[in-house]
Task: structure prediction
Amino acid sequence: MKAILLQDIKSLGKKGDLVNVSDGYARNFLFPKNLAREANAQAMNELKNAQQSKKYKTETEIAAANKAKSELEGSKFVMLAKTGANGKLFGSITSKEISAEIKRQKGLDIDKRKITVESEIKTVGEYKAEIKLYSGIIANITIEVKAG
Result:
């Protein structure tokens, strides 16, 4: 019997997979516990639509990430910070502040958790940062910190 999994099952497959199982296993275990549903014509159509929807969503996200990468790649963001002696900052520049600066200059809403800086920004100077826009799509930017 063919069944569509509604949840991940360790020995069988992942959610949304179409699997072939014995009739007894499906009727006595999978169906009563709502782990799977019978793969009839309606269920197959819903599965097909869900897969197309998921594919469209990922394609849209990848396109948006590539567009953001083209806008950000190689960009230089100048940030002003209060400094003390020897160009040391009072505190540090955080990824949250970098995210706010990107939103202010480029209008892109980047999550602070997706920004990684090569080292902590505690002095005046230039720093390299990576922004992970999507799986495998990374934009490299430069952060210049000036005394302000």
